[in-house]
C-alpha cells in the first residue's frame, strides 16, 4: 500500500509533468475499480470517456493515502490505491502491464496508468461538490507529513479510541497517511508493542509514540526522494528497519524480527524491544 511518504514523492514527481497537460482520452481495461459518480446513470465506460475527454489537469493534491487530480470544469479524480494499487507515468508506446486497470492518455503523448493486481483500490471520478460523498477522503485526521499536532492535542485525539495502538494508527482518524508498513516502523521506533491497547500506554510511551509518528515518515520522505526517481510504480521499502524483515536481526538489539498475522495483515516487530503478549490486552 502506498502510504504518505510514498505518495509525497509520487506527487512531487508527477506535479510538473501532469499539471497543465490535457487528458485526450481514458480507457477502463478492467471493471470494479472505477467509480463514476458524474451524471445520471453514471457508471458506464462510455459516459466516463465522453465526460473526461479534453479536460485539463489543473492541480494535484495528496490527502493521507489518496491522490486528488483536479480537472478543468469542476471535475476530480480521487485515487485510493489501497493494498496493491499504483501509478506509472510512461510514454504511450510502453508495454501495458497485465495489472493495468485504467489508462489516461495525455495530449503530450504520455500515459498515466493506474495498475492494481488485486483490484482492491478505487479510482473515483466526480464533481468537486461530491468530495464529501467519499468517506475515506472526508473522515481523516490531520496529515502525518504536515505540521505535527502538539503533544497535548495528540493525547486528546487518542481519547476516543480503545483499541490496539497499531489499528488506531492505520485507521487514519488520529493522523492520516499511515498504513501497515509505517505503523510497524513507528511502533518499533517508539518501543511499543503493536497490539497494546492505547488506554494502557504510559505517559512516556505516549511521548515516544508522538515523536515517532512524525519523525519516522519525515525521514522516509528524505530517503525516497533520493531513491525513487522516475520509478514511481515501485515501492522502495528495503531501508525500513522491521517491516518485511521477518527473522532478520533487529537493528537496535540484534534479536530476530517477529512476524504475526492478525487482523488480515502481517505485523513485524522486535519481541525484545517491544515486549508484550497477545493474551495480555
Structural write-up:
By secondary structure, the chain is α+β, with helices and mostly antiparallel strands. The protein has helices spanning 4-18, 45-52, 135-138, 151-158, 165-171, 180-190, 203-227; strands at residues 22-28, 34-36, 55-63, 66-71, 75-80, 85-91, 100-106, 110-116, 122-127, 257-262, 265-270. The protein folds into two domains: 4-138, MutM-like, N-terminal (N-terminal domain of MutM-like DNA repair proteins); 151-270, Helicase, Ruva Protein, domain 3, CATH 1.10.8. Helices cover 28% and strands 25% of the residues. It has a nine-stranded mixed beta sheet with strand order 2-9-5-4-3-1-7-8-6, covered by helices on one side. A two-stranded antiparallel sheet has the order 10-11. Helix 6 packs across helix 7 (203-227). The radius of gyration is 20 Å and the shape is globular.
Task: Supply database-style keywords.
two-stranded antiparallel sheet; 2 domains; 9-stranded mixed beta sheet; alpha+beta; 281 residues; Helicase, Ruva Protein, domain 3; N-terminal domain of MutM-like DNA repair proteins; 7 helices
Q: Rg, please?
A: 20 Å
| Residue share in β-strands | 15-25%
Distance N to C terminus: 27 Å
CATH C-level category of the largest domain: Alpha Beta
Shape: globular
Largest sheet: 9 strands, mixed
Whole-number tally of structural domains: 2
Level of helix content? Answer: 25-40%
Taken in chain order, the helices and strands follow as HEEHEEEEEEEHHHHHEE
The CATH homologous superfamily of the largest domain is termed MutM-like, N-terminal
Low-pLDDT runs of 5+ residues are none
Overall pLDDT confidence: 94
Q: Structural class of the secondary elements?
A: alpha+beta
Amino acid at each position: 500500500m502506498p502510504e504518505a511518504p510514498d505518495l509525497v514523492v509520487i506527487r512531487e514527481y508527477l506535479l510538473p509533468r501532469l499539471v497543465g497537460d490535457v487528458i485526450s482520452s481514458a480507457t477502463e481495461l478492467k471493471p470494479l475499480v472505477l467509480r463514476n459518480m458524474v451524471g445520471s446513470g453514471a457508471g458506464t465506460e462510455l459516459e466516463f470517456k465522453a465526460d473526461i475527454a479534453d479536460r485539463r489537469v489543473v492541480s494535484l493534491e495528496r490527502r493521507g493515502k489518496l491522490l486528488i487530480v483536479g480537472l478543468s470544469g469542476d471535475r476530480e479524480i480521487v485515487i485510493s490505491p489501497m493494498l496493491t494499487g499504483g501509478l506509472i507515468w510512461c510514454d504511450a508506446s510502453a508495454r501495458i502491464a497485465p495489472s493495468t486497470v485504467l489508462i489516461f492518455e495525455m495530449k503530450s503523448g504520455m500515459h498515466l496508468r493506474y495498475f492494481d493486481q488485486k483490484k482492491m483500490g478505487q479510482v473515483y471520478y466526480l464533481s468537486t461538490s461530491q468530495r464529501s460523498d467519499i468517506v475515506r477522503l472526508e473522515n481523516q485526521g490531520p496529515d502525518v507529513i504536515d505540521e505535527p499536532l502538539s503533544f497535548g492535542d495528540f493525547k486528546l485525539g487518542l481519547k476516543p479510541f480503545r483499541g490496539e495502538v497499531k489499528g488506531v494508527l492505520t485507521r487514519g482518524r488520529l493522523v492520516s497517511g499511515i498504513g501497515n508498513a509505517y505503523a510497524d516502523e513507528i511502533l518499533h521506533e517508539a518501543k511499543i508493542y503493536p497490539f497494546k491497547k492505547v488506554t494502557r500506554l504510559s505517559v512516556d510511551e505516549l511521548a515516544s509514540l508522538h515523536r515517532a509518528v512524525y519523525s519516522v515518515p519525515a525521514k522516509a520522505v528524505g530517503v525516497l526522494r533520493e531513491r525513487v526517481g522516475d520509478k514511481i510504480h515501485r515501492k522502495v521499502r528495503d531501508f525500513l528497519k522491521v517491516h518485511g524483515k521477518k527473522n532478520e536481526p533487529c537493528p537496535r538489539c540484534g534479536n530476530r524480527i517477529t512476524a504475526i498475522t492478525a487482523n488480515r495483515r502481517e505485523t513485524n516487530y522486535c519481541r525484545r524491544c517491544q515486549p508484550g503478549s497477545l493474551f495480555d490486552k
